[in-house]
């Protein structure tokens, strides 16, 4: 079985992002970029399935600017067999990425597609669900455990009320939650090996996908600064303040 894994290049989770002074977006010049953490979990899961003998090939896909090739090399250092960069300078929204992935699903015919549950830059949490709808495939989102048995994936999902287990027929779309696994560290020998693995670069046009933006960002602003907290003498004072000053009770 072939697995397709979507990996997005995002601002590293340790970076404190700054809004550009003209309010048009977030400043990403000279900022460390990394693979979206949920996508690292997706690659790790695919590699574990391969190690169990359930998967024969892992194809990592990234959509975006040319440096996304680094993200694909990281995926290949974790264990993906090859990479596909769908290269564009356009600002991609989840629907455009889902359309690209749908075209690649048609082309590559994977038995499983694994994505992160959300990208930590836009926090959209939409691409996997949109892909499932476009490709008309079953979806199991927010996976915290995946087992592949008899042509089906049994997926434990983290939902508001606790854990839910669903069984989906393959091919299917799975999105990863934080507790699915802990991605391995990439070793130097594997980084070196990854440099030799095949990486194909194609344009969205070649897949017949129009990536034109459908959303216009009007303004980006920093959240309001929080004021310092205060200590109150007793519960009565706290209740009085909540009632009279904060007016929340
Ligand atoms: P989002 O819907 O934007 O929160 O993203 C959810 C998941 O879709 C991510 O964790 C990735 O697996 C995948 N994804 C989103 N954008 C891209 C992209 N530009 N390239 C590759 N994968 C992406």
UniProtKB/TrEMBL annotation:
<comment type="function">
    <text>The electron transfer flavoprotein serves as a specific electron acceptor for other dehydrogenases. It transfers the electrons to the main respiratory chain via ETF-ubiquinone oxidoreductase (ETF dehydrogenase).</text>
</comment>
<comment type="subunit">
    <text>Heterodimer of an alpha and a beta subunit.</text>
</comment>
<dbReference type="InterPro" id="IPR033948">
    <property type="entry name" value="ETF_beta_N"/>
</dbReference>
<comment type="similarity">
    <text>Belongs to the ETF beta-subunit/FixA family.</text>
</comment>
<dbReference type="GO" id="GO:0046395">
    <property type="term" value="P:carboxylic acid catabolic process"/>
</dbReference>
<dbReference type="InterPro" id="IPR000049">
    <property type="entry name" value="ET-Flavoprotein_bsu_CS"/>
</dbReference>
<keyword id="KW-0249">Electron transport</keyword>
<dbReference type="InterPro" id="IPR014730">
    <property type="entry name" value="ETF_a/b_N"/>
</dbReference>
<dbReference type="InterPro" id="IPR014729">
    <property type="entry name" value="Rossmann-like_a/b/a_fold"/>
</dbReference>
<feature type="domain" description="Electron transfer flavoprotein alpha/beta-subunit N-terminal">
    <location>
        <begin position="23"/>
        <end position="211"/>
    </location>
</feature>
<protein>
    <recommendedName>
        <fullName>Electron transfer flavoprotein subunit beta</fullName>
    </recommendedName>
</protein>
<keyword id="KW-0813">Transport</keyword>
<dbReference type="GO" id="GO:0009055">
    <property type="term" value="F:electron transfer activity"/>
</dbReference>
<dbReference type="InterPro" id="IPR012255">
    <property type="entry name" value="ETF_b"/>
</dbReference>
<dbReference type="Pfam" id="PF01012">
    <property type="entry name" value="ETF"/>
</dbReference>
């Amino acid at each position: 079985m072939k697995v397709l894994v979507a990996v997005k290049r995002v601002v590293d989770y340790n970076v404190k992002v700054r809004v550009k002074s003209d309010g048009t977006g977030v400043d990403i010049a000279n900022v460390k970029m990394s693979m979206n953490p949920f996508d690292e979990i997706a690659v790790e899961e695919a590699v574990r399935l391969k190690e169990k003998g359930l998967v024969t090939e892992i194809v990592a896909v990234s959509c975006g600017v040319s440096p996304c090739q680094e993200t694909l090399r990281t995926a290949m250092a974790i264990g993906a067999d090859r990479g596909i960069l769908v290269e564009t300078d356009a600002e991609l929204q989840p629907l455009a990425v889902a359309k690209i992935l749908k075209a690649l699903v048609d082309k590559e015919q994977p038995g499983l597609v694994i994505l992160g549950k959300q990208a930590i830059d836009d926090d959209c949490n939409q691409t996997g669900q949109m892909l499932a709808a476009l490709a008309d495939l079953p979806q199991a989102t927010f996976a915290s455990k995946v087992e592949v048995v008899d042509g089906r994936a049994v997926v434990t999902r983290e939902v508001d009320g606790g854990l839910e287990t669903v069984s989906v027929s393959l091919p299917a779309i799975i999105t990863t939650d934080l507790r699915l696994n802990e991605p391995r560290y990439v070793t130097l020998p594997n980084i070196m090996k990854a440099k030799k693995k095949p990486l194909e670069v194609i344009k969205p046009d070649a897949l017949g996908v129009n990536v034109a933006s459908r959303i216009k960002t009007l303004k980006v602003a920093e959240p309001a600064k929080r004021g310092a907290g205060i200590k109150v003498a007793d519960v009565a004072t706290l209740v009085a303040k909540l009632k009279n000053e904060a007016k929340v009770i």
